[in-house]
Amino acid sequence: MTELGASPQEAPPAPKKFGTFEGVFTPTLLTILGVIMYLRAGWVVGNAGLLGAVGIILGAFAITGATGLSLSSLTTNIRIGAGGAYSIISQSLGLEVGGAVGVPLYVSQALAVAMYIFGFRAGLQYILPEAPSLLVDLAVFAVVFGVAYVGPSLAFRVQFVILAAIVVSLVSIAVAAFGGSMTEPVTLFGQFPGAPETGFQGTSFWPVFAVFFPAATGIMAGANLSGDLRDPRRSIPRGTMSAIGVSLLVYLLIAYWLARSAPPDVLVSDYYVMVDRAAWAPAVLAGLLGATLSSALGSIVGAPRILQAIAATGVLPASARRAGQDRRGEPRNATLVTGAVVLGALLLRNLNVIAPLITMFFLITYTMINVVVLVEQSLGLVSFRPLLRIPRVVPLIGALGCVFAMFIINPVFGLLAVGLVLAFYVVLVRRGLRAPAGDMRSGLFVALAEWAARRVIELGGTNERGWKPNLLQPVRDPDEVRATFPLVHGIVASKGTVKIIGIGSGVSTAALDAAAQGFRDEGVFATASTVEAESFERGVVTSIQALSGAFLTPNAVFLSVPDDVSRDRELAAVMAAAHAHGLGVLVFCHNPRTGLGRRRRIALWLGDQGPGWELGSDLPNLDLATLAAYQLTRNWRAHLTLVGVAQDPRHRDAADGYLHRLATAGRLPRDTTTRVVDAFDAGDEASRPDLMVFGLPESPDLEQIRTTARRAGGSCLFAHDAGTESALA
User: Fold this and answer.
1) Distance of alpha carbon 394 from the chain centroid
2) Is the separation of the CB atoms in 222 and 235 below 8 Å?
3) Cα-to-chain-centroid distance, residue 29
4) pLDDT of 8
5) Lowest-confidence segment of 101-110, 141-150, 252-261, 348-357 by average pLDDT
6) Closest-CA residue to 214 (of 124, 297, 115)
7) Which of 50, 109, 197, 372 could form a disulfide with 92 if both were Cys (CB 3.0 to 4.6 A apart)?
């Protein structure tokens, strides 16, 4: 309700939305029926013959037709937003992949406008050879930019006029055909003489295919306007596939007409043979000019919408400014930026050098559309239930065909385009973009994990070579995680995992989640959950049992020796339960006076292995201790010392040899040193390690552990094997 005397603010007019015919079919058809149809179709037929030309046309349309079906299937499965292909790819594979493909696609779309303007000028100069090139280019740019700036409504009205001109040109060709122009015998297989520019030095099938293939592209012209459609889910499939079908029929009929209307030597030497053989030459010239103008118009209308969609998701710097819209929803800022890009390209005067790169970016976009469908179909997710279902072979043909076309057309530019897309991807990954909605990447990783889990279960065995530290850390208080973080992180980084379990009803879930996030911030995968149980032992046992069937099953339990000796029995029961369920045990005895020191020196203690001190295929309950010491040495960049206890002086040499063989067989760091003693001796404070690692007996005495730690004068880690790890594997 407005105040007395105040005029209510007028609501901005709703942007006009378009239907299938004007919003998708017309721009897509006009983009496909472009300059190649008028100026190169005859050259293709003259080189390849009628059957060769039909094979080229069908091959090119098979690739883009498969891509069109993939595009149609995807648009019936998602709520496609503005930006066409960018919206599809970013919703499926994430903003990083969408941006890596979308930014080059936008640039290519903008540069294509300049290419079409150059084509329009070439056609005009066929009629008016004296027309100044730069003036014509700038005049045409002013027209198409002005139309695009006003909005798609005007652009579509202009395209209807152009469509009428193209229809009239085709009618002129049909009149010529029925009027007696088709008098030449058909050449089924051509001799591939080449082009006049190269002095007819000869060519082959695939270079001719490469010249024609861009004619079959342009299938995204309607999809790029997805944000301006009333019902994109319905309009894009119908409009795109209808345009592909109609244009395929037109190309096949024109190929037959050309093969019957002119001999091969004329077809390959006269690019304007369609003009000369038509009933009304001016009609075909008007169609040629209209085709180039419509392609330029479609690109300059579609490109700003791609840019606006990219900017709206924060992919580009200063995205808020580029994503700005006027009161009618038109991307004015993006249109101005696109106009500046096109004008700069026109002033360069020659884009032939980078023209193949433009085609490559279109093909990469088409490839990704097909890949998205392949991945979605392979995952079998419930969320992928398109109204238009296609066989898996369709996107496979589309993806392989697009890659094949890239390297047939120009392998150097194909590799360059792929390299640029990968470079964009790396930059966007480092920016840490956050999508406003989820994508299918999590589903992809879950599917891969499920497949891997099934394979692991089917293979069976202990798989010592594939062992990684996957720790279960049960705690009563989240502060225990913070206190032991450097040690746990040093053991599991970077490929291991940590499962934090809060035992008891009073444990803060938020604090546990924060602790797990701390590990993830440091590159270690960690999760957290709580278990309510009547006792610490019962909670740990319940957790072990619940996780025993998981893929990332913990293989060791990490425990801290409590200061309260009344908990010793409870801790001993937990260790016994871990043994019973086949888990290793790591027990940390923290020295509050020294902590972990500088984390630069680690000592691994090995009990008396005499009298033989022979190194077998496995270690006697020292595998987990050795692997933990190795992990800590590597992640802390510390120095490792192997200490062997030889109670009999006569066995010292054998013990020393054993330690050296262990260092070699265990692939321990090259600077690992060895020391043989006749009894436990921690050394003086100057040489004392920051952490000592010991083997743990199957029935440990916690008081004995405390005594050893006190004698060591520092923090100690005790380990008992699960039997699934091997330091010598």
Assistant:
1) 21
2) yes
3) 31
4) 45
5) 348-357
6) 115
7) 372
pLDDT digits (tens, 9 = 90+) for 522-568: 989 999 999 888 888 888 888 888 887 666 688 899 999 988 888 88
Residues of the chain with CATH 1.20.1740.10: 20-431
Express each pLDDT in 423-458 by its tens digit. Answer: 988 888 777 666 555 556 666 666 666 666 666 656
Q: Residue 59 — φ and ψ, nearest 5°?
A: -65, -45
pLDDT at 22 over 80: yes
Q: Which residues pair with 644 in a beta bridge?
A: 606, 676
Tokens of 602: 């680690």
Which residues make Cβ contacts (< 8 Å) with residue 415, sequence separation at least 6? none
pLDDT at 698: 79
d(CA 428, CA 100): 7
Q: Which of 717, 662, 727, 668 is nearest to 692 (CA)?
A: 717
pLDDT at 562: 84
Q: Answer for the pair 104, 424: CB distance below 8 angstroms, yes or no.
A: yes
Q: Is 249 exposed, middle or buried (0-12, 13-18, 19+ CB in 10 A)?
A: exposed
| pLDDT tier at 74, thresholds 50, 70, 90 | confident
pTM of the predicted structure, to 2 decimals = 0.70
Length of the chain: 729
User: For the residues 638-644, what does the mean pLDDT come to?
Assistant: 93
DSSP lists the bridge partners of residue 525 as 497
Q: DSSP readout, 220-274?
A: TTTGGGGGGBS-HHHHHHHHHHHHHHHHHHHHHHHHHHHHHHS-HHHHHH-TTHH
Confidence category of residue 68, pLDDT binned at 50, 70, 90: very high
Q: Which fold has domain 20-431?
A: Amino acid/polyamine transporter I (1.20.1740)
Tell me, rounded to whole angstroms, the distance of Cα 286 from its chain centroid: 44
Question: What is the rounded radius of gyration, in angstroms, for the C-alpha atoms of the chain?
Answer: 36
DSSP bridge partners of 499: 472, 527
SS3 191: coil
CB 334 within 8 A of CB 307: yes
- Alpha-carbon distances, residue 73 vs 364, 377, 536, 701 (angstroms): 18, 11, 53, 65
CA distance 378 to 365: 20
CATH of 461-560, one of 3.40.50, 3.40.225, 2.40.10, 3.40.1130: 3.40.50
- Closest by CA to 56, choosing from 206, 241, 264, 269, is 206
Determine the Cα–Cα distance for residues 610 and 408; give it in Å rounded to an integer: 70
> Cα-flanking dihedrals φ and ψ of residue 485, to 5°?
-55, -50
State the CATH class of domain 590-729: alpha beta
At residue 583, the 3 state secondary structure works out as coil
